Amino acid sequence: MKETVKEFFDQDTWTLTYVVHDAATLDAVIIDPVWDYDPAASSLSEHSVEKVLAYVKERGLKVHYILETHAHADHVSGSQILKKTIPNAKIGIGAHITSVQKIFKDIFHLDPDFPTDGRQFDFLLHEGQTVNAGSLTIKTLYTPGHTPACSSYIIGEAVFVGDAIFMPDYGTGRCDFPAGSAEDLYDSVHRKLFQLPDHYQLYVCHDYMPGGRPLAFHCPVSEQKQKNIQLKASTTREEFVSFRKKRDATLSAPRLLLPSVQINIDAGHLPAPERNGVSYLKIPLRK
């Protein structure tokens, strides 16, 4: 089986959503969908999800799973919107999401009854676990560092790496979110992603098109090992950790951090409506 990968790029958040399917059986999965959020108006729209659904419908794909590589801090997950149209699709995420839920439950002072055992998701994926989506086989690699709960998914010779690593001319994900770790990210890339066969294609979750180059979203392991500007095969752990910590200290918080994380740790659900029928998000104030 040769997997077919179709990308959808959201310019507002620089995010790649992927639909992966078997052209023979039409079995499919969707990875990292986007629910469009306008922070100025605090409004949500479904433009990005609609493009994915149109592709799925046009080809008659059978979507088994909607997978999240991590609880994103830069866009709201469109998983629940997809489930309205594809109710049999199950939402999965790495099992360490429970750590992120515990951290942000305190940060946002969420309801004491907010679950932190991952039950909001349909299933949790563990290191080395393999699941089948019809004819598609998906293997999970635990690749923390950007967050403590990041996972990568191997489908055939395609690897969906989330924010662990970007295109070689941009580098790696930041590691300054709560419980992020430059040391862990180095190990995730060097000991796991760089140990995959050189011809495997790494598909990134974001592309920021440095220098105004055209969109790019995948390259072979061999190219990352040789050319990644922040983390090559020859880069030492000490070199990377020092660089990453200095670099992260200069970065501003992602524009959609506060709304995204609250929704995404709850598997893409909005907070329950209050008495007036409106859902509200929390914004902690820092003095």
Task: Describe the overall structure.
This protein has a single domain (3-262), classed as Ribonuclease Z/Hydroxyacylglutathione hydrolase-like (Metallo-beta-lactamase, Chain A, 4-Layer Sandwich). The strands form 3 sheets. A 6-stranded mixed beta sheet has the order 1-2-3-6-8-9, with helices on one face. It has helices at residues 47-59, 79-85, 97-107, 182-191, 221-227, 237-248, 257-264, and strands at residues 3-10, 15-22, 27-31, 34-38, 43-45, 62-68, 76-77, 90-94, 123-125, 130-133, 136-142, 151-155, 158-160, 201-203, 218-220. The chain is built from 7 helices and 15 strands. It starts with a strand and ends in a 23-residue tail after the last helix. The chain is globular and about 60 Å long.
Instruction: Specify the overall morphology.
Output: globular
Poorly predicted residue ranges: none
- Strand runs, count: 15
| CATH architecture verdict | 4-Layer Sandwich
Q: What does the oligomeric state look like here? A: single chain
CATH fold title: Metallo-beta-lactamase, Chain A
Strand order of the largest sheet: 1-2-3-6-8-9
Q: In the residues, how many domains can be counted?
A: 1
Helix content: 10-25%
Instruction: State the helix count.
Output: 7
Radius of gyration: 18 Å
Level-1 CATH class name: Alpha Beta
Strand-residue proportion: 15-25%
- Give the CATH superfamily: Ribonuclease Z/Hydroxyacylglutathione hydrolase-like
The helix/strand series, from N terminus to C terminus, equals: EEEEEHEEHEHEEEEEHEEHHH
The major beta sheet can be summarized as:
6 strands, mixed
pLDDT averaged residue by residue = 97
Structural class: alpha/beta
User: How far apart lie the N and C ends?
Assistant: 56 Å
